[in-house]
Amino acid sequence: MSEWPQVVQSPEELMQRAKAFAAKIRLNLSQKPMVIYLLGELGAGKTTFCKGFLSGLGYQGLVKSPTYTLVESYDIKDDIKDDIKDDIKDDIKIYHFDLYRLSSPLEAEEMGILDYFHAKAIVLIEWPEKAKGFLPKEDWQVCIDFQENNLHRLMNIKKINQND
Ligand SMILES: Nc1ncnc2c1ncn2[C@@H]1O[C@H](COP(=O)(O)OP(=O)(O)OP(=O)(O)O)[C@@H](O)[C@H]1O
Ligand SMILES: [Mg+2]
To answer: How many Å apart are CA 103 and CA 93, to the nearest integer?
Structure first.
């Protein structure tokens, strides 16, 4: 497992780091989705990370928190950056989940959550713990922790070995 721990000092810096992460990772989506779990308390910066991530892929539109809708979908075909176009042979979809409001993990199954995990999908999930047992394993974990200074966060991006 590889890890990239980093102290971020503002929301702007966290967005910037997420943007750089999105631009750097290889999007190898030919056979399976890319799954990113976002872990951290309320207000830690998970949605902020998603905004930066989408912007790093070239998306320029509005990013809304899926707090009430559970999921927001993004089609980035028209925005996608030239230098990552080659990684993405076909159209890809980004799904951003916030499962905080699920009343039980079974509800995730009932909403057909697995349908979102198709081979052309990048799936970012806030509060994956709420659907424990009903989600595919993650490729990446982004853990964000508060630090004593209100503006500082410790963000750790971990690559997860799917065979573990
Ligand atoms: N270093 C920082 N990184 C990220 N956000 C920060 C930082 N410092 C302060 N903030 C503020 O913390 C808040 C983070 O909100 P955000 O919606 O990203 O959290 P979240 O983890 O998605 O919470 P929730 O679980 O409620 O969805 C924002 O208001 C942001 O301005
Ligand atoms: Mg959020």
So the answer is: 26
